[in-house]
Amino acid sequence: MNAGKLLDVCGYAGKLLIENGAEIYRVEETMVRLCKSFKEVQEAESFVISTGIMLSITIDGVTHTKVLRTRSKGVDLNCIAQINALSRESSTRHFTIDELHERLTEIAHMKHYSMGQMLFFSALSASGFALFFEGNWTAAFYSFLIGMVIEAVTLFMNTYHLNNFFINAIASGIAAALALGIHTLDPQADMDIMIISSIMLLVPGLAITNAIRDTVAGDYVSGVARALEAVIVAVAIAAGIGFVLSIGMKGGM
């Protein structure tokens, strides 16, 4: 058996899970299960944090280890579900290393939602939050438009792999500027509701949830790291909105 190739494939599965928002325990469990699906593997151990993976397997009394660095972050629950299903299937069906790699590659390149769908449903979410926060239909309509713009800007900046802090700061600043401009043209539109409902698209809900789950599961390093990530995103959102509103209020004065 090619131990290096097996480590590459199982490490790739773990990397896909982390980069798509999976919890740490799920990543470790999935990689170990995939490794142990091969009868030649006598022992498999993994150690994962939110920015890296360490995976080792023992074959014929010799231990082989691989270290991976993870960088990009995103949310794709379908990708996580597909890899989990593959790891469970590997427990009952024997895959070759090449077959595993092929399946993982197919999962990684699955067709996602179109840009139009993402823009529409992001905008719809923003308008829904406007109504949830007791805004009127006017605020909901404008929040729909602002949410669409925010999503378009975020998708555009993500194509250049910009830092998350700057992406969230710029997107929230644009949201505040649009809300301020709309309120100036239409005083009936509640500026606060428009800002709050539109920036809900940027709030790191998954990072907060995973931080709590990782901490409860005993993965304190990853829990703290993800909690800090959520705090940084919150600071970026506040900075973007605060900067634009401070300029807008001074200009209005």
Summarize the structure in words.
Helix 5 crosses helix 8, helix 7 (164-185) packs antiparallel against helix 8 and helix 9 (205-216) runs antiparallel to helix 10 (220-252). This protein is mostly helical and 253 residues long. It has ten helices and three strands, in the order ααβββαααααααα. The chain is elongated, with a radius of gyration of 22 Å. The longest helix is centred in the last third of the chain and has 33 residues, at 220-252. Strand 1 and strand 2 (52-59) form a beta hairpin. Strands 1-2-3 form a three-stranded antiparallel beta sheet. It has helices at residues 3-19, 24-36, 77-92, 97-108, 115-132, 137-158, 164-185, 191-199, 205-216, 220-252; strands spanning 41-49, 52-59, 62-69. Its main location: membrane. It is found in: Cell membrane. One of its GO terms (molecular function) is transmembrane transporter activity.
Write the layout of secondary structure elements.
Layout: H1 3-19, H2 24-36, E1 41-49, E2 52-59, E3 62-69, H3 77-92, H4 97-108, H5 115-132, H6 137-158, H7 164-185, H8 191-199, H9 205-216, H10 220-252
Helix pairs in contact: 1-2, 1-4, 2-3, 3-4, 5-6, 5-8, 6-7, 6-8, 7-8, 7-10, 9-10
Domain Threonine/serine exporter-like N-terminal: 8-247
GO cellular component, one term: plasma membrane
Transmembrane segments: 113-133, 139-158, 165-185, 191-212, 224-247
